[in-house]
Amino acid sequence: MKILVLNCGSSSVKYELIETDPALIEAHQDRSLGQGLIGDFSSYADAVGSAISSVVSNPAEIGAVGHRMVHGGERFSGAVLMDDSIAREIESFNELAPLHNPPNLAGYRAARAILPHCPQVAVFDTAFHQTMPAHAYLYAIPEELSRRHRVRRFGFHGTSHRYVTLRYAQIHGCGPQAFKLITCHLGNGCSVSAVDGGRSVDTSMGFTPLEGLVMGTRGGDLDPGALLYLMEKEGLDVEHASRLLNRQCGLRGLSGTSHDMREVLARSEQGDARARLAVEVFCYRAKKYIGAYFAVLNGADAIVFTGGIGENAPAIRARVCESLGALGVRVDPAKNLQACGIEMDVSEETASTRVWVIPTHEELLIARETLGAVLSASPPEAR
Hints:
The chain is α/β, with parallel strands linked by helices and 383 residues long. The chain is built from 16 helices and 12 strands. The strands form 2 sheets. Strands 3-2-1-4-6-5 form a 6-stranded mixed β-sheet, with helices on both faces. A 6-stranded mixed β-sheet has the order 9-8-7-10-12-11, with helices on both faces.
């Protein structure tokens, strides 16, 4: 089946056409038939229409559309076929993801109008983390506030963490239930997950993507008292505080120059003290979460690095993993340098905890989840 994957943001539409079926998935031979990014459009209908015309000559070739949906709250723990009632449920979570869910839904409505013959499937960033136990997702705030306002840890980057979890298991010829993994998605946004037997049991992002690791422009963990103090001292209202936390912190705030790890690393190597400290803080925070998740899992079979930084920055992987020898982690320097954008075990031969690089492919995961939802809804004779 040819599946169009749409990731509709507030100012861009990313798309990929993927051919997949159960046999191709098992052999990891799904095929990308075309992809692109549209960053200048007058309407989502125009953008989705352009995406479709760029990948197929006949829209009837498309068998289904998979939509990246950022937030499904507690309601959605897996991919779901969309209709008006499902769209309304997703819309109810808009206030939890105001920058993402509305354009995701706009893309769905545009695709439904252009491709009325196609099943439309929502695949949620938050779904993979719905297996977290209550002691991991609850904040220590009054229960009535938590329930009334849906304030809890949801986690994000779920499609990436799930993809590398499944791919690691596939590489090793077993089901994901056989492994305990610590998956590290390091990019402009960063998160770490503890995955036990294929199920997320904890993750570093929380109620929003602001919690956890140091990121490109987000600072990660911050004492709430420090934020209240800064709001008072700087006269910040909620809007300006949100802009500070989302756009001016992280690598950009620490380095004073850039949110891009490539630039920060280059400046660090040139002797820039602020850039060097930014790298150290970034790596220390990741190391701290990895250590915590070793405790959560009572040991791990492997640490998996993915995302733009995780896949392509050997220096960051090396710094994150140094001093984890007591946990059985030992990275081979030569292998680590070689592993840029490719699947590879970069551990020393005798290391008891393996370190892997597995490039993520979230669009592929969305296509596979879309296929699964469509097949599950089809009568047996139609499969």
